[in-house]
């Protein structure tokens, strides 16, 4: 019998409990499948007293992460602490000690992944992170191994289950943003402080990791254009729906000629029959485009202890195929240090969809059209309709300020640069007929032409 | 610089050309990503004269497959001949000679995969076959590596692009089966002899491979319950659509307690919002369910030279990570020889949907209900509607035989065994009021409750 692969787990929370549970539930399978048997050898957490869904032999438990990081018997450190520090230091220490590391920590990877992967390579060990992006969807291995023959040109995905849940609840159940957020918190899908999710920080970490791997360029969290979803109202979503769209928090990474790269996360309008428009609730969905494959589309649970355990353990199993001291080839795709894109491009789209609330006087629509034209924004369609306060008061505080009936103006623009849109909106926001304190919404549209044309590839 | 990985390719057809094209187009990427550079060393085909989309240096070409199989310089044999023989012999010879083999040949694997994988293991080489199932979708690696920590309980998929194209054309463009088949042949999606596709032989090969790997049991082509799509009429599909369903050629593999396994391919009704119902044209789509992951859903191009090249080369790239003579761990999941399922179960479904054409006399509906009750088939819903010959004559040859207006009777049954349904249909087919020569259709339904309940897993 081969020497067991000894696992030191740091961070015994929900995810850690899920990993231990799966190790136990599927013990028979894992013994049959793994070239070296998996052995849970130490478990470290700062709090050993709080109740957990699984029990662990007390002799394995410690409050001292160093006891795991320094133990020469341990082959693999599974880091499930989360957050930037001390998680980053734990990963670095483990690698320096010549241990493989498996982590679910997107924040550490999106900020320090390139250096840590280089360190792993130097130490001839592996730093694996399947669980960092897409939860149970094996997008990291699909991208870096299954699609390694492809020149990846574009990745588009719904990478944050919390935001997807909130937007789905707003659209499907007619909840206001605040109600949907509270609902997500009640179900445990959102943290008490939801900032990282709704400000698109979490999704930005994830798309930075994917873009860096896919394009072989040094792309970090701060390189990602980021817009949150907190300003979206139920009315906005309903108006978009009436035009045939679904609003999603969409993460996109694209590369064009000469390493011109665009990476961003923002609320985006998708045609309702776009594959990603069908990804609801807390699911994640990812489209990867490249040559020769054309495109593939992956959907699955984006978070949760079970799905994450599947991803974490797939990494541990991969490591069980290596004997101690065996030399490891470098990974096929990695995050390079300091190989920045030639040029940072604006995130592309098929045009914008604007929604402007005005006092409804007869000149308003003409004024909007004139302002857009002045700023070189081509207009495909513009319409005006009466606007009534049908929504719960927590969504809107506005009181009418004129004798005219207020109205909502919707504009479909042609393809246009974001700068021109922003300048036009600045002028619109200063117009005397705009409803005070209303938000003028400008969301990018990804339309049917942006659906991966996989048919042409087959 | 590491010694190159030398590739001997056997079968220089469309797929072979796609592989060579991709090797060339992505040369820069592959050089950067592969630990050992990939070298196309020999190319064998029985016909070297016919025109091909890529040119190959004549010094590499040979008509003698043995020249590839015996060449000690060659590390990897890529078998793209297709069909059972001589492809199987080529694979066996290459493995016996200690060479890795990469193949796209589902037929060889569904009939002889277990023996060939055992031989590869004995010879300490790899037999890889990502391209054999799902075309560009990396379902083999997802199943055997990414999901290796999971107890797989069910796989459901659209695995044959040709049938999916035919059914999509019938539903979307209102074509008869024969017209849709001719259209598929014109586009190159169907062979001149379409038997393997429309009789579900191809999909049966693919689901046998997936089931064998997923359940660790010896499941071959002949173990798969198989029904073709050629009897489906446009009218049937339209009637199903009116009831909210889409008809797909669905491959399903399920395992229950005590290794009771059901594996089948048959036309199946899916709710139109089922994930697999959205997979149109020549795309493939696969849902994999297991614990702890819950479920994931993969969609992509199911065939074609480009997509297949992506899959074939991912296997070749994986082999480039191994140095010559380095000992290889066994694959995590493999096809076992002679470990048959304990019991072969009937393919499960949520009940059947029947469509019966009758002469429309007043007793007919009551007669159908009585016959079903006699055979212990519970009925959830039964309806009768006038039936008119609206369809092109190539679809129906029938002339009314009675003075009554003909009608179509549709039945939704409850969950019921296939045996009882078949017995009931035998009696219905003998009823004097049945339209002569009409086909009494009984299709299984997979309804909303069968959609993977990934939400409960996250």
Largest sheet of chain A: 11 strands, mixed
CATH topology of the largest domain in chain A: Dihydrodipicolinate Reductase, domain 2
Instruction: Count every helix of chain A, treating DSSP H or I runs of 4 or more residues as helices.
Output: 14
Q: What multimeric state do the chains show?
A: homodimer
CATH-assigned homologous superfamily of the largest domain in chain A: Dihydrodipicolinate Reductase, domain 2
Number of domains of chain A: 3
Q: What fraction strand of chain A?
A: 15-25%
Uncertain stretches of 5 or more adjacent residues of chain A: 390-403, 449-458
Please state the overall shape of chain A, judged from the principal axes of the Cα atoms: elongated
Supply Rg of chain A: 24 Å
Amount of helix of chain A: 25-40%
Structural class of chain A, by secondary structure, is: alpha/beta
CATH class of the largest domain in chain A: Alpha Beta
**Which CATH architecture of the largest domain in chain A would you pick?**
2-Layer Sandwich
Distance between the termini of chain A: 47 Å
The biggest chain-chain interface is: A-B, 71 and 71 residues
Number of strands of chain A: 17
Outline:
Chain A contains 14 helices and 17 strands.
Task: Note down, in words, how this protein is organized.
Chain A has 458 residues and is of the alpha/beta class. Chain A folds into 3 domains: 5-136 and 305-320, Rossmann fold (3-Layer(aba) Sandwich); 139-303, Dihydrodipicolinate Reductase, domain 2, CATH 3.30.360.10; 352-449, 2-Layer Sandwich (Alpha-Beta Plaits). Chain A has helices spanning 14-25, 27-33, 65-69, 87-96, 106-122, 139-146, 161-173, 177-186, 195-198, 201-215, 234-242, 305-320, 364-374, 418-429, and strands at residues 5-10, 38-44, 61-62, 76-79, 100-103, 127-128, 151-158, 225-226, 245-256, 260-271, 283-291, 294-301, 343-344, 352-358, 379-386, 407-413, 441-446. In chain A, strands 7, 8, 9, 10, 11, 12, 13, 14, 15, 16 and 17 form an 11-stranded mixed sheet that branches. In chain A, α1 (14-25) crosses α12 (305-320), α4 (87-96) runs parallel beside α5 (106-122) and α5 (106-122) runs parallel beside α10. Chain A is elongated and about 85 Å long. Mean pLDDT of chain A is 90; it is low at 390-403 and 449-458. The interface between A and B is large, with 71 and 71 residues. β12 (294-301) of chain A pairs antiparallel with β12 of chain B.
């Amino acid at each position: 019998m081969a020497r067991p692969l000894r696992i030191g787990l740091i961070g015994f929370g929900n995810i850690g409990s899920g990993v231990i549970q799966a190790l136990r539930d599927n013990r028979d399978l894992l013994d049959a499948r793994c070239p070296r048997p998996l052995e849970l050898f130490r478990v470290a957490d700062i709090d050993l007293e709080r109740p957990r869904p699984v029990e662990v032999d007390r002799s394995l438990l410690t409050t001292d992460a160093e006891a795991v990081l320094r133990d020469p018997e341990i082959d693999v450190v599974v880091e499930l602490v989360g957050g930037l520090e001390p998680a980053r230091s734990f990963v670095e220490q483990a690698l320096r000690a010549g241990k493989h590391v498996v982590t679910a920590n997107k924040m550490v990877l999106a900020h320090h992944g390139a250096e840590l992967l280089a360190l792993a390579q130097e130490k001839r060990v592996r730093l694996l992170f399947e669980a960092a992006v897409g939860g149970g969807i094996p997008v990291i291995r699909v991208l870096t191994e299954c699609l390694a023959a492809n020149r990846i040109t574009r990745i588009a995905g719904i990478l944050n289950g919390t935001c997807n849940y909130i937007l789905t609840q707003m659209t499907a159940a007619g909840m206001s943003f605040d109600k949907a957020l509270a609902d997500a918190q009640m179900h445990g899908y959102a943290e008490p402080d939801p900032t990282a999710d709704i400000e698109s920080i979490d999704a930005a970490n994830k798309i930075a990791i994917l873009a860096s791997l896919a394009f072989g360029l040094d792309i970090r969290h701060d390189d990602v254009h980021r817009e949150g979803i907190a300003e979206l109202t139920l009315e906005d979503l309903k108006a978009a729906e009436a035009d045939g769209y679904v609003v999603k928090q969409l993460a996109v990474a694209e590369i064009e000629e000469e390493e011109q790269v665009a990476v961003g996360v923002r609320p985006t309008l998708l045609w309702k029959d776009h594959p990603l428009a069908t990804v609801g609730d807390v699911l994640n969905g990812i489209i990867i485009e490249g040559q020769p494959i054309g495109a593939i589309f992956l959907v699955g649970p984006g978070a949760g202890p079970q799905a994450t355990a599947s991803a974490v353990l797939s990494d541990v199993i991969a490591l069980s195929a290596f004997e101690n001291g065996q030399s490891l080839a470098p990974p096929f795709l990695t995050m390079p240090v300091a190989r920045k894109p030639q040029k940072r491009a604006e995130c592309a789209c098929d045009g914008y969809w604007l929604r402007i609330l005005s006092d409804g006087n007869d000149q308003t629509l003409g004024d909007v059209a004139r302002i857009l034209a002045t700023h070189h924004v081509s207009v495909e369609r513009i319409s005006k309709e009466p606007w009534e306060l049908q929504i719960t008061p927590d969504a809107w505080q506005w009181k009418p300020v004129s004798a005219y009936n207020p109205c909502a103006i919707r504009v479909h623009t042609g393809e246009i640069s974001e700068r021109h849109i922003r300048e036009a909106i600045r002028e619109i926001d200063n117009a005397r007929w705009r409803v005070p304190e209303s938000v003028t919404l400008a969301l990018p549209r990804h339309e049917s032409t942006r659906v991966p044309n996989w048919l042409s590839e087959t």
